[in-house]
Write a structure and sequence with these properties.
- By secondary structure, this protein is mainly beta.
- It is built from four helices and 46 strands.
- Strand 45 and strand 46 form a beta hairpin.
- The protein starts with 10 loop residues before the first helix and ends in a 7-residue tail after the last strand.
Length: 522
């Protein structure tokens, strides 16, 4: 949480695997009559029955549109697999726990706001059971869709309690969390024993996992988190996708995929794995002033801490402390086989992208490919971390086809440790910096002021360039490049399994016979 070549893993195969497992359609669900065909969980389905909840209803009623139930909890306890729960707009001051499941045969249980209305689960004044609980909690539940709810105002002043907006725990399959709005979840306790989460998924069983999980189109913001993440997957969670979410204005990590925390009872299953983090927008994420961190810029936009076989692509991260970090906080452990491609990271307080453990006593990064990203004017707080930071226990990693444009601080690559003779291979990168700055590359703690000196000392970046990438409108953060940019057609194509099939904007990743450097293809 926030405080030798290997031929057995194929990045190309992994790219296909992710596409097959976690990219099933995410379609809107509407409250309709029983028997009407709708799309849910990526499948065409006719709900068995449609039931309604309204603030002026009665649990003695029939749950119909004209005689709705009063509480969401009564509804989720009463319906069966394949049923649809339509929650009318209004404020529901209750904790909701789902423990039953839909099924492959009958279909999922669907819980959603009535379209055009907003059902709000408000935690004002409510307790936090068992020390850690959600306004909406799924326990060992499968075939569940939760869509279009607002979850808000759940807080504590005690380190013994952990408020969560939406919480999935235990084991389960075919869970969809779509288009929900989670905000104002707070801990006001001090220190790293203080925790709160906007959205949390804990795979606490083994070998049974939480799997076939889609978290899509949610908005998560205004959280006071202590030592926790805004949004995290931890423990035995596999075959998942986090896509098109917006996370902002929080005081710790935005999105985390975590392992080795003891969440699952068997260490062999205790890591988030085989998933994708794509097309999310993340901004205003900083731990500076968070009592758990003091005046440290330590909050990541995207953090893989002990996860494996994870794809991070086409995300926009800006005004975070560290844009994207892939590492492990546990000694002897790594985040491994991670692809970070076609992302844009700009205006961060500290490093744009970071790999390796933050200290020699913790873990590191193994086989992380950082390909075709655009890093622009990060390290705004002049921490010295630079655009691309390489820390302890980094092994068999690659940094290729990236645009790296520093601000006046000038640090382009910062490999400050000496524990590995070759922590990362670098090539085909395009470097530049703002006028008035002094370029700096650091290799094994020694600083170099020119690309030629850096290349000679490190033995890396044989085909790199130091030239203006010619962004279309850098002042407005339009980081597409102009037709004559040195980024155009000068990258190396490592195959679709590594570079992807789409650039940041959704265009073909390779056009004009060669691949461009950076996140955009011209």
């Amino acid at each position: 949480m926030g405080c030798t070549p290997n031929a057995t893993f194929s990045f190309a195969l992994f790219g296909v695997l992710v596409g097959l497992i976690v990219s099933s359609p995410v379609s809107a669900v509407s409250c309709q009559r029983a028997g009407d065909t709708i799309m849910a969980n990526g499948f065409e389905q006719s709900p068995q029955q449609a039931f309604y909840v309204a603030t002026n209803g009665s649990n003695a009623g029939q749950g119909s549109a004209t005689a709705p139930w009063k509480t969401i909890q009564y509804a989720v306890d009463t319906v069966a697999a394949g049923d649809l729960i339509c929650v009318r707009g209004g404020v529901y001051n209750e904790l909701v726990t789902i423990t039953q499941s839909g099924s492959a045969q009958a279909g999922p249980i669907l819980l959603q706001s009535v379209p055009g209305e907003t059902a709000v689960i408000d935690g004002t004044g409510l307790p936090i059971p068992d020390g850690q609980y959600g306004l909406l909690t799924l326990i060992d539940a499968s075939w569940i869709t939760v869509q279009g709810l607002e979850l808000r105002n759940y807080s504590t002043a005690s380190t013994a309690n952990v408020p969560i907006g939406l919480y999935v725990t235990g084991a389960g399959t075919q869970i969809r969390l779509i288009g929900n709005h989670i905000h104002d979840i707070h801990t006001t306790a001090n220190g790293c024993a203080a925790n709160a989460f906007g959205l949390k998924v804990d795979g606490t069983r083994a070998p049974q996992s939480i799997n076939q999980l889609s978290i899509h189109g949610n908005e998560i913001h205004d959280l006071t988190l202590g030592c926790s993440e805004s949004f995290s997957l931890d423990g035995n969670v596999e075959n998942w996708e986090i896509s098109a979410n917006r996370v902002y204005d929080t005081n710790n990590i935005a999105i985390g995929a975590i392992g080795f925390e003891g969440i699952a009872p068997n260490p062999a299953f205790d890591q988030a794995r085989d998933g994708a983090i794509r097309e999310n927008t993340i901004y205003n994420i900083s731990s500076f002033g968070n009592p758990a961190y003091g005046n440290e810029y330590a909050a990541d936009g995207i953090y893989v801490d002990g996860g494996t076989r994870i794809l991070i692509e086409r995300n926009l991260v800006h005004h975070a402390d560290i844009g994207i970090e892939v590492a492990s906080e546990h000694a002897g452990r790594t985040s491994s086989d991670v692809i970070v491609r076609n992302n844009i990271v700009h205006s961060g307080n500290s490093a744009g992208i970071s790999i390796g453990g933050y200290d020699s006593s913790v873990g590191g990064s193994l086989r992380v490919d950082i390909i075709g990203n655009t890093l622009f004017r990060n390290d705004q707080a002049n921490t010295g971390s630079g655009e691309f930071q390489i820390q302890y226990h980094a092994t068999e990693n690659r940094f290729i086809n990236n645009i790296v444009h520093a601000g006046t601080a000038g640090y382009l690559v910062n490999a400050f440790t000496t524990d590995s003779s070759l922590p990362v291979e670098l090539d085909e990168n395009l470097y530049w910096l703002d006028a008035g700055g002094q370029a700096a590359w650091v290799w094994q703690g020694v600083e170099y002021a020119s690309l030629a000196a850096w290349r000679s000392a490190s033995g890396q970046d044989a085909n790199a360039l130091f030239d203006d990438p010619e962004f279309l409108a850098p002042a407005g953060f339009d980081l597409r490049v102009q037709p004559g940019s040195p980024a155009v057609n000068t990258g190396i194509n490592l195959g679709a399994g590594v570079v992807g099939t789409s650039d940041f904007a959704g265009n073909l990743r390779v056009m004009g016979g060669a691949i461009d450097i950076g996140a955009h293809e011209r």
